[in-house]
Amino acid sequence: MTSSSRPRVLVTRAVFPEHVARLEARVDATFNQADVPLDVDEVARRLDGVEGLLCASGDKIDSLLVRRATTLRVVSTISVGTNHIDLDACRARAIVVTNTPDVLTETTADFGWALMMAAARRVTESEHWLRAGLWQRWSLDQFLGVDVHHATLGIVGMGRIGQALARRAAGFSMTVVYNNRSRLPAAIEEECRARFVSRDELFRTADHVILVLPYTRDNHHTIGAAELASMKPTATLTNIARGGLVDEDALADALTEGRLGAAGLDVYEGEPAINPRLLALERVALTPHLGSASRATRAAMGRLAIDNLVEALEGREPPNRIA
Ligand code: DGY
User: Fold this and answer.
1) 311 belongs to the catalytic site
2) Is 60 contained in some domain?
3) Domain for residue 319, yes or no?
4) Is the CB of 98 under 6 A from ligand 1?
5) Is residue 321 part of a domain?
6) Are residues 192 and 238 located together in one domain of the fold?
7) Which CATH number does the domain housing residue 203 bear?
8) Nearest C-alpha to atom 6 of ligand 1 is from which residue?
9) Do residues 8 and 38 both lie within one domain?
10) Is the pLDDT higher at 161 or at 4?
């Protein structure tokens, strides 16, 4: 393919040097290596005459943008989540959409585990206190948390990452219950040592609830005041999926009133803006959407997204097509 016949691609986010090289070998790409935030209008402007878009979960690819991007043929997101993309609008224009599943499963499960442990054992809260110079002496009742080992883990959303979390729970001698749109085959339940339960039972019985379900229009604030009220007052809630799943004000109420033990949050409804009520609370471990953020996994996600993009632009079926 000559350089002039190579597809034009817009990359919305800074990517690793190896990604730049991989793209430059196959397409005519416009990069954003300074990682300047691009609003929808700016993306639309830069998409003029462009056929491929390499984006990430913070980029809103809505129906208006899809309508304006008249030359766009492929949207490849460097994420497994696709709630930022209007898939119906893309289908209506026959735009191919791809994501990056599998390569991030274990890394994200590791992080979910870390955040759940941090919430249960008050890791970030006590570190802030220590850094503030407040530690005078060891005391028996300092920053008492709740145990993870031998406790009941409730996994909401039992896809690949949910299953990876369940497998980790065996090492902590936990009882695992899960809820999912559909029950898993018996062989997977057995391998994960996980029991399917209703949402009600999960919230009532779990000592640690972790959210790993995809966010859709239909499950906005699926964890609200009622779900939080049904949880044990000592329980923890960890969210590594999407912020919109949780009613953050209801969560802040539950934590403030001592109706919930602690929370671990990696994702937020208005991220990167954080609900100020959450920032003011002690019993919350907060991280900036880091679930898949190991060097190796982010590199693999970028490579996979590029391969998906190029395959589709060159007219072949991409490995991870979702629309
Ligand atoms: C994902 O892959 O969906 C992660 O949340 C990163 O955006």
Assistant:
1) no
2) yes
3) no
4) no
5) no
6) yes
7) 3.40.50.720
8) 79
9) yes
10) 161
Residue 298 among the catalytic residues = no
Instruction: Judge if 34 and 152 occupy the same domain.
Output: no
Pull the structure tokens for residue 199: 């949402």
Helices (H), 48-170: 63-68, 87-92, 105-121, 123-131, 160-169
Look at the block and give the residue holding tokens 């491929």: 52
Q: How far apart are the first and last CA of the chain?
A: 27
Paired tokens of 254? 């539950």
Cβ of 104 below 6 Å from ligand 1: yes
> pTM score, two decimals?
0.96
What token pair was written down for 167? 């497998």
Residue 107 Cα, ligand 1 centroid: separation in angstroms? 11
Task: Write the pLDDT tens digit of every residue in 196-236.
Answer: 999 999 999 999 999 999 999 999 999 999 999 999 999 99
112 C-alpha vs ligand 1 centroid, how far in Å? 13
How many domains does the chain fold into?
2
Known catalytic membership, residue 221: no
Length of the chain measured in residues:
323
> What distance in angstroms lies between residue 99's CA and the mean position of ligand 1's atoms?
9
Shared domain check, 300 and 273: no
Give pLDDT, residue 15: 98
Among 289, 298, 303, 311, which one carries the catalytic annotation?
289
Structural domain containing residue 126: 105-286
The catalytically annotated residue of 208, 242, 298, 303 is: 242
Beta strands in 160-204 (DSSP E): 175-179, 194-196
240 CA → ligand 1 middle, Å: 9
Q: Are residues 221 and 75 in the same domain?
A: no
Out of 106, 191, 201, 271, pick the active-site residue: 271
